[in-house]
Design brief:
424 residues; Rossmann fold; eight-stranded mixed β-sheet; five-stranded parallel β-sheet
Length: 424
């Protein structure tokens, strides 16, 4: 019989953010399991331990070099999370810094940190996670934060910044490995090699969606940076322009050959579209694109139904991939909707660990891309396999794109018949 020594001790870790987004210094209890057996244990041996319920013997013998079966690795991760296991021996401590512009990103100051924390909690490694909060994305604030990051010796930084903050970070010329979960490198030039990007590719999502678009194309957009960017991209793709000609917008109508585009901004102060939709025969049999946040999208779809606009379909990018859509809209309003989604890889352990922190990585794309980033950094530091198989090419995460339909109670895969049948 193998002798297993189980030791309960305290290890330095991190705690959840308080409202001020500072790390608590109270350590969390860890469980350490040591293998005292002189014999090797292969995968069959590990399977036998599980079948006999010898959980600690299983945990003492399993490691990243002696197992390839996904079931065994999954069970290991589950038990590591349940028992909050610490590593008995470790070559390197995992040290991650987060640069948090808390006023700029709102709730994501907490949720992105929780996503990183939840990931690290599932690993059998000691770690240090420290947040460096900045009030703004000014050059001075970012410079001061990185002076502290440099002084404390952090080499890996996750920074959920906007384009404004990223420009200042480029100008600063930092040497740490930086992961930006909020931005796609599509529109960037002269990117330093130590920068990695995880933002969703809205342009590629739009290309996939517009393969299913009919003319006229009707674009409703939010007057934000993202909304205006999507408007320009989609107009250009649909009209087959080589370049975006956004300065040519003189009214709500664009035409090239037989393709027509109608473009309507949706104000944050007034979402009443009666003047646009009522008795407007030009919009019949159109494809409607919603480049608007969730609530606005719900209001637009309800008015399309109210004013009897006969649409071919309703298209949207990742913006509206949210289960709340199913509760704030009527099925009749959304039955012709198609949504592009890039949150395609699911990991039950990470989803459940995040859920314990009231965090969502199944639908919230920024939390999801943050998890992809810490997974990539962890594999770089620890030399282990990544949990997610999504490729990172030229320092950009390349997400697959799938089309989803918001059905009665869930999002289901799109097929050409699914929307047609729902409209009958």
């Amino acid at each position: 019989m193998k002798k297993i020594f189980v030791q309960l001790s305290l290890a330095l870790s991190v705690s959840l953010f308080a409202q001020s987004y500072t790390i608590s210094q109270i350590p969390l209890p860890k469980t350490y399991i040591f293998n005292l057996s002189p014999y090797e244990c292969n995968e069959d041996c590990l399977e036998e331990y599980l079948q006999k319920g010898m959980v600690f013997s299983f945990l003492a013998n399993i490691n990243d070099t002696n197992v390839s079966r996904e079931k065994l690795l999954e069970m290991k991760n589950i038990y590591v999370s349940i028992f909050n296991l610490g590593a008995s021996t470790i070559a390197k401590q995992i040290r991650i810094a987060m640069l948090i512009p808390y006023k700029k990103i709102g709730k994501y100051a907490t949720t992105t940190t929780n996503a990183v924390f939840a990931y690290l909690m599932t690993k059998n490694y000691s770690f240090e996670l420290k947040s460096f909060s900045i009030e703004s994305e000014s050059y001075e604030d970012i410079q001061q934060a990185f002076e502290e990051i440099e002084e404390e010796g952090f080499k890996y930084v996750i920074a959920p910044l906007t384009y404004q903050g990223l420009e200042q970070l480029f100008a600063l010329g930092v040497e740490q490995n930086i992961y930006i979960p909020t931005i796609n490198k599509e529109d960037l030039e002269d990117i330093p090699e130590n920068f990695y990007f995880g933002g969703i590719d809205y342009k590629e999502q739009s290309k996939v969606l517009l393969q299913h678009a009919a003319s006229p194309l009707v674009i409703f957009y939010d007057t934000s940076y993202t909304g205006e960017k999507l408007r320009d991209i989609q107009k250009s793709i649909f009209l087959d322009h080589v370049e975006d000609n956004t300065d040519l917008f003189t009214d709500n109508y664009e035409q090239e050959d037989d393709k027509k585009v109608f473009i309507f901004p949706v104000s944050s102060h007034n979402s009443n579209l009666k003047n646009i939709l009522k008795d407007n025969d030009d919009l019949n049999n159109s494809s409607v694109v919603l480049d608007t946040p969730l609530v606005k999208s719900g209001l637009i779809m309800s008015q399309l139904t109210l004013y009897d606009v006969n649409t071919t379909n309703i298209l949207s990018t990742q913006i509206n991939y949210d289960p709340l859509l199913l509760s704030i809209t009527q099925y009749e309003d959304r039955k012709q909707m198609i949504i592009a989604n890039s949150i395609t890889e699911k990991n039950d352990i990470l989803i459940e660990t995040n859920a314990l922190l009231k965090n969502d990585i199944s639908y919230d794309w920024i939390n999801y891309t943050t998890t992809i980033g810490i997974d990539y950094f962890f594999s770089m530091i620890a030399g282990t396999q990544r949990v997610y198989k999504i490729p990172l090419i030229n320092n950009q995460v390349i997400y697959p794109i799938e089309l989803k339909v918001p059905s009665y109670s869930s999002f289901v895969p799109y097929s050409s018949s699914s929307v047609e049948e729902s409209s009958l």
